[in-house]
Amino acid sequence: MSTGFDWPALLRAGLHGLQLSPDAFWALTPAELQLMLGSGGGNAPMLSDGLAALMAAYPDKTKDHNDER
Fold first, then answer.
1. Region class of 42: left (phi > 0), else alpha (psi between -120 and 50), else beta
2. Does residue 15 sit within a domain?
3. What's the CA gap between 11 and 52, in Å, rounded?
4. pLDDT tens, 2-19?
5. Structurally, how many domains does the chain consist of?
6. Is 1 part of any domain?
7. Mind listing the pLDDT tens digit for each residue in 29-69?
8. Rounded to the nearest 10 degrees, how much is the dihedral formed by the CA atoms of 47, 53, 56, 59?
9. 23-37 in b/e burial notation, b at 16+ Cβ within 10 A?
10. Cβ 66 vs Cβ 47: under 8 Å
11. Domain presence at residue 67
12. Residue 34 in domain
């Protein structure tokens, strides 16, 4: 059964490359380790134009007495 992680490579990168202690390495989440290794930049942040488009598409509305939430 494959876990999808190359543990020897991750350990080398964390302990040797990043010079983490074993405790610090094992305390990291996979996302934190990925960020520290400089990979997986993720999605670009939403800029003001994107926020304005979302606000226009889904405007806030005031609740009235008939709203269930």
1. left
2. yes
3. 43
4. 567 788 998 999 999 999
5. 1
6. no
7. 988 988 898 876 566 777 888 889 989 999 988 776 666 65
8. -50
9. eeeeebeeeebeeee
10. no
11. no
12. yes
